[in-house]
Amino acid sequence: MREDALIAAGNYKGAAEFTRANVDVEDRYDIDNLLWHLEGGSASLFAKEHNVSIESFDEGEVLIKHYREQMLSSDVSQAVRANFLNDTTRPYIGTEYDGIMLNTYKAIDYMAMGDMEAARVEFNRAIDRQRRAKAYFAQMIAKERGEIEKKEQQERASGSDMRLSETMKNPDVQARLEQGYPGLYAFEPYPDFVNPMTTYLAGLFAMADDNPGKAETLLKEAYGMMKDNAGVAADLELISSRKKLSEPMVWVLFENGQAPILMEWRIDLPVFIATNRLDYISIALPRLVERQQAFSSLSLVSTGGERYQTAHLSSMERVIKTEFEKNYDAILRRAIFSMMTKTAISYAANENHRNNSRHNNNEIGALISVLATIYQMASTRADTRIWSTLPKEFQLARFTRPDDGMLKLMSPGGLLLSQIELPDSDYTLVYVKMATHGADPSVSVIPFGRR
């Protein structure tokens, strides 16, 4: 996607303009609008166009709510409507981590604008979204499966013996998937639908917002997921002791690298379809492809020569993988059922062709058969839409504010990336975005509390 390349080059303003130009303003519910609003909101945040960023995220939130209500309504789900084509024909409805990052980014926007009350609301929404996500996801999957089973029963009642459940359990199917996607489960997942960075930043904000009880709860949860980060441990220790900051502090949060993208891969699977016959069909599935860090870490160097280094805080990649793994069964089920439906159509067309041949209608029958085959091939596509400008990981540095408030942001090789002038504030967040090592960094310096 073009905005991905612009962010990778550090052209945040250009990326924001590109995404806005691609929003369909005539059709609010255009199938790609939600994704454009998400990409545009984050690009505008890094371009420091905070009002524009909030407007994009506000519209994205409206669409997420709309699609969630639609998916859980009594109407036939979007999943089943897509079965005669593929997932690319239905709207991009957003992932759970999309919604959580949307509210997290809005909170950062409001912090940068000095609106702490609005930032508090957004952090509350992000944490509440994490809490509700598991229940919503279970409802959505149950609804979608029920709709597909209903459709399968209708197909079988009409004479097409489409045994999706048996196909899903077929050992050959499982073996082929494992061969084609060996890394699907080969990672340590986070708790379901929880973004550790969001939990940590919300806890840090609550600490600055003079809400120690809430801050301790959130920082305990964050520490449970990020025990190796000394900064998280120090913040938890501070809030647990109920002590105030003894000196002004700086937190540098670094969005490092590029999140995974989705690419299409095809696989032949055995299925039971049409008068108990075992066929092999080719389906298209999305596969996560990992991308790289920008740097192994960044250094912050004071005028006096003190050096502070960012360290791994949490992995956005793991957040994405965790949800993708949970959703994969549904993606696979839709893809197989869609192809089985189209294969049944092709089978019926071929049967019609044979019948017509007996009655000297060879040309008409052949045309129907060819059209069915073309339709089947052309409509086999995987949905590879994803919020591509999220980072691979988050890193953190936590240290006492230098007396003169001056810092140099340095690469591991000693390259000066940015000069930073800190405000006279007890709590200062420095939010850094770099997708690639060649990009200009986006650096936002945000005061957000008093001790």
Distance between the termini: 44 Å
Largest sheet: spatial strand order: 6-7-1-10-11
Report the oligomer. single chain
Helix content: 40-55%
Number of helices: 14
Radius of gyration: 25 Å
Mean pLDDT, to the nearest integer, reads 86
Q: Return the structural class.
A: alpha+beta
In the residues, how many domains can be counted? 1
Please give a structural write-up.
With 451 residues, the chain is α+β, with helices and mostly antiparallel strands. It has one domain. Helices cover 51% and strands 18% of the residues. It contains 14 helices and 11 strands. The protein has a 5-stranded mixed sheet with strand order 6-7-1-10-11. A hairpin with a 7-residue loop joins strand 10 (427-434) and strand 11 (442-449). Helix 3 packs antiparallel against helix 4 and helix 7 packs antiparallel against helix 10. The protein is elongated. The model has no long low-confidence stretch (mean pLDDT 86).
What keyword list fits this structure?
451 residues, four-stranded antiparallel β-sheet, 51% helix, alpha+beta
